[in-house]
## 1
Amino acid sequence: MTSQTLLLGQTLQFTADPFTAGPDAAHHDSAGGVLIEGGHIKAVGHGADLRAAYPQAAITDHGDALLMAGFVDAHVHYPQTGIIASWGKRLIDWLNSYTFPEEMRFADPAYAAEVASRYLDLTLAHGTTTVCSYATIHPASVDAFFTAAQARGQRVVAGKTCMDRNAPDGLRDTAQSAYDDSRALLRKWHGQDRLSYAITPRFSPTSTPDQLDALGALWAEHPDCLMQTHLSEQTDEIAWVRSLYPAARDYLDTYEAHGLLGANGLYGHAIHLEPREKDRLREVGAALVHCPTSNTFIGSGLFDMAGLVAAGQRVGLATDTGGGSSFSMLRTMAAAYEIGQLRGTPLHASQLLWLATIGSARALRLGDRIGNLAPGMEADVIALDLASTPAIAQRSTRAQDIWEAVFPTIMMGDDRAIRATWVSGQRLV
Ligand code: GUN
Ligand code: ZN
């Protein structure tokens, strides 16, 4: 018989979307349990009931830690791990000064392997079990990332970043090689274990129309793949896009005109959107990815979470490491809260946690497999200590409900709050 593990602790399960259903969208049990079998969640319920129903299960008791789904980070650049927190530049200068020189180093597969491992270990320690990452232009940087994730049993999405202009020598491919390399990587990795491939044009300034066409054609040949790119992050960038694509109606049109707008598209940042862009994104059911620590760190602007969600957009949440200044989805939720406050629309703790799990999982079209504690879901679970520092503990002891108990950890927590991380039922942290 397959071995069973019963995790005991407080449990948090979403039963609806808190943006529409409010804080009642979740079920909290202060003495709950999660029964894991064969890498999947078999049952979630009251701890005592599960103990009685599954007497043979190996029990680990996590006391009053909160058992919940592992975090899902819908937009990261694992190759930027080493340059996180680089000072003083806005987007284009930041790319040229810090990012491109670092991404050049990934021509060395040994360096790529070292950073991929370091990145996944760091993020697992922060409770993130799934990420959707850009690699660099080097195919071996994709191999390195998928190899490291596969060794950890993780569900991840990644793709080779494509750039054939406005990038330095050594960091450009061509329209044809981007197509050929992406296709070969897709065929090699997509659907292997828990890995999936995302077609990845970096953003329209670093691709020629020919390259966007080639990647649009590849996506049409593999419509089940995700396609990830950047959209309307900074005003200077938008002006540059306008000068590079004079015939385009707006930034989104540079993708749309080349077959790169679709339901499986992920558009990072999406801050300064025109009405037409919002309409088209919603019509096709594309996903927007909010990267709040990046948007404040690089000085990009204030994403309109409340307005976009109310208008029916699909939205995920992400660190955007290393433009983002953190590996932590807790810190990322805090920044999303602060940006909401600056816009006059604070997000509730239930909405923040939903975005960091189900919202991002749905953005990645993985909402049926990860992002929640529910029978049949893959067993990517974390145990969150709601009193991980004296400052957090003294605030959370006053809490009247689970949302008030978890909010200080959202606002002030870091990797010390992650007591354990399970991936596919295996404890990795
Ligand atoms: N736009 C194009 N490339 C990047 C990147 O690496 N980070 C961020 N934040 N924005 C981008
Ligand atoms: Zn990015």
## 2
Amino acid sequence: MAASVRPLVAGNWKMNGLAAAMGEFNGIKAGADKLADKAELMVCPPATLLAQFNWAAKGSKLTLGGQDCHAKVSGAHTGDIAAEMLKDAGASAVIVGHSERRTDHRETDAEVKGKAAAAHRAGLTAIVCVGEQKSQREAGETLAVVGGQLDGSLPDTATAATLVVAYEPVWAIGTGLTPTPADVAEVHAFIRKKLDERYGAEGNGMRILYGGSVKPSNAKELLGLPHVNGALVGGASLKATDFLAIAEVYAGA
Ligand code: 13P
């Protein structure tokens, strides 16, 4: 992996957060600025808060991301949001293919690939999520499943700056369960190899995040593993103190 890779700790707020969350956001912003030399901190709030958070983050190093986007630029798609709209509201990135979208909205790899390509069209970094179900891990299919998702979901247009892969085992999300460090390291090394093969030197610099029940108590162990270049944090990102305690793993780096 390129020595210059800057870790990314991104908070996925999912369908949580009202305007009253500004206090937590401001706490995260202050911490992000202190850690900026060591790691990038990002908040992916619900789309309703993006523009407001963008104003509040002016002059700060904290970055913002969306949680999903439509593949098209505009049109008759009630309720959907174009990547260009997220960019316009202040996002620099967008999560695509989160397992909750793959499950709740039956998103396929091909759709996720289209969304990631849309992110690039709009000038956003695509954070593409992959990860196995519990039954797939138990059947020894983890690498085959993740490999298939990478082959099917990653866009052809990708550089080290514009593509982030998040490995999120579905059974570890919101459950308090995590794979063993050896299991996380195995999957991340596999993803790195796939990125190297597909994108060459650019792939070598792409960040690979771990997500799934990351907390202050396990962050040091998980984020210290080879080819783990940061975290995608759900529940613990809603509280500034917990989110910053995770990111502070990089404070001494
Ligand atoms: P939790 O950190 O709540 O397990 O969620 C992980 C996740 O899905 C982040 O995208």
